[in-house]
Amino acid sequence: MSWSTTPQLRWLRPLLALFAVFLLLQILMPRSTYTQIQHNFNGRYLAQPERQNAVKREFLHAWTGYQDHAWMADGLLPLSGGRKQQFCGWSATLVDALDTLIIMDLNDEFQDALNATLTIDFLESIEGCEVNLFESTIRYLGGLMAAYELSNDARVLPKLIELGDMLHTAFHTSNGLPCTHCKLLEKDLDIKPTEDAILADVGSIYLEFARLSQITGDDKYIETVDHVSQVFAQVQNDSSIPGLWPEIISPAAIGGDRTDFARKSTRFALGALSDSAYEYLVKTHLLMGKTRDVYESMWKRASREIKRFLLFRAYIPNANEKDVIFPGIASRTFGDSEAMLETRTEHLACFAGGMFAMASRIFGDPEDFYIGEAITNGCVWAYQNSPTGIMPETFTLLPCTNTTQCEWSDSCWQDQSNRPEHCMNGNCEQFKFPPGFLQVSDASYKLRPEAIESVFIMWRMTGDEYWREVGWTMFESIIEHTRSAFGHAALLSTMEIYDRDAYEKGLMVRKVLARQMDDMESFWFAETLKYFYLLFSDPDLISLDDWVLNTEAHPFRLTESVRGF
Ligand code: DMJ
């Protein structure tokens, strides 16, 4: 008699059968390598309350400036204490900062800000204001929606609908594509789709309007999103680099000669003008990929061409020690087989590090993780090697000619750097920039978030403390140079204090502060300081497994049944 037929052990049989089924399923079920976006921290991370508090203190310094000097204006002027109107006067800074106030546990400040927000009339604006659809969608709609998601305050919902409906009228055109800059509040206005539009202005509306439908149950917003995304999918191969959309597109072409949509320009990039049009393919798939496959297919096609045409390995000191990649700008005229790569890169393009890293998990392509990491390394390099410790807005690097080896030679770089096309105002006498930076065409820093955004994503995805360390140094440099009487100020130049002699003696010129400009964009509150804060927080706070952040860092909750990962 075997043990399984022993009467005393017969009760074991159903259990064994269950176990066998379980084992069989384990063998037969296709296994996904990735089950989540965030690293499995399991409580194993260092709490960094001092650093978090330091970020919060800086936030409060600027917030107090805004409260005292520019309350309910679109922005504060951080040097003069003045106020500015930038986006129709609906208090852009106030709305953009709401969710950061919640995340930082600034409850009294949040209640004051929310009460003020509820008095904004989105159906009135400053005289004759042209609504910037992109900025209003990512800052106002995104900001209000995240405040609603995080506070669950029912009073926000009617405001959200008022604003959503007003912005939605931008799509009330003959072909359902938007007018990106129109006086939407003017009565009886015949709204026409824009002739020449910035790619990101049209291609970055999916996330906010799709989530608005999920929240309200009103499908009209998602129908608009579906239509726009279908158009982008249809024209994806019409441009001079099939798979990519150029920096300028023509919404007005749809309904006429469709191919003109993607033929207004032959320049392609990941920075200004284009950035979030690619970011939203990944993020919108995350938000609703179980119900739509268009974002995944667009991303897979586009990312292949991004890797082929836009990314380059840079010739910088120690390039062999760490993989460093930068996004550049590609051009190709119709009919040409060759594309030209301009190795000019931008702070704005640093978001691509986080985008590729997240895409690797979402679409299961491990190679993309290394691309994301290498892009983030590039941005960190630019911070670490600028004299202020802050990456400039736009600069040119030499590309490595060999894809595997990239041996640095100071003299070779100096020769290149001294070529007339790289000299500033024809003056080749001095070395203007630290080794690696060939030309810096815009040395300013506008308080932008993209580099710390990618560093934050790398930390949340790997749990590697390295990212928090480099992030902290970035924070210290930014605060050192940008802190002003009323807030934090954009910088005229991250480079002007460069001194070759000091550099060669191993001294970074840190004592001299960069010149400040009287400007502080609302994304300083919405994005830059939020990412710094979240880098040092408990990784469960706004976990990337539960939330998707829009391009202005406003978190939207992921719904289990529809989320695409
Ligand atoms: C922000 O408004 C958003 O991140 C946008 O996608 C790009 N520009 C700014 C920040 O630099």
From TrEMBL:
<keyword id="KW-0479">Metal-binding</keyword>
<protein>
    <recommendedName>
        <fullName>alpha-1,2-Mannosidase</fullName>
        <ecNumber>3.2.1.-</ecNumber>
    </recommendedName>
</protein>
<dbReference type="GO" id="GO:0005783">
    <property type="term" value="C:endoplasmic reticulum"/>
</dbReference>
<dbReference type="GO" id="GO:0016020">
    <property type="term" value="C:membrane"/>
</dbReference>
<dbReference type="InterPro" id="IPR050749">
    <property type="entry name" value="Glycosyl_Hydrolase_47"/>
</dbReference>
<feature type="active site" description="Proton donor">
    <location>
        <position position="393"/>
    </location>
</feature>
<dbReference type="GO" id="GO:0005509">
    <property type="term" value="F:calcium ion binding"/>
</dbReference>
<feature type="binding site">
    <location>
        <position position="551"/>
    </location>
    <ligand>
        <name>Ca(2+)</name>
    </ligand>
</feature>
<dbReference type="GO" id="GO:0004571">
    <property type="term" value="F:mannosyl-oligosaccharide 1,2-alpha-mannosidase activity"/>
</dbReference>
<keyword id="KW-0106">Calcium</keyword>
<dbReference type="GO" id="GO:0036503">
    <property type="term" value="P:ERAD pathway"/>
</dbReference>
<keyword id="KW-0378">Hydrolase</keyword>
<feature type="active site">
    <location>
        <position position="275"/>
    </location>
</feature>
<feature type="active site">
    <location>
        <position position="450"/>
    </location>
</feature>
<dbReference type="InterPro" id="IPR012341">
    <property type="entry name" value="6hp_glycosidase-like_sf"/>
</dbReference>
<keyword id="KW-1015">Disulfide bond</keyword>
<feature type="active site" description="Proton donor">
    <location>
        <position position="135"/>
    </location>
</feature>
<dbReference type="InterPro" id="IPR036026">
    <property type="entry name" value="Seven-hairpin_glycosidases"/>
</dbReference>
<dbReference type="InterPro" id="IPR001382">
    <property type="entry name" value="Glyco_hydro_47"/>
</dbReference>
<feature type="disulfide bond">
    <location>
        <begin position="350"/>
        <end position="379"/>
    </location>
</feature>
<comment type="similarity">
    <text>Belongs to the glycosyl hydrolase 47 family.</text>
</comment>
<keyword id="KW-0326">Glycosidase</keyword>
<dbReference type="GO" id="GO:0005975">
    <property type="term" value="P:carbohydrate metabolic process"/>
</dbReference>
<dbReference type="Pfam" id="PF01532">
    <property type="entry name" value="Glyco_hydro_47"/>
</dbReference>
<comment type="pathway">
    <text>Protein modification; protein glycosylation.</text>
</comment>
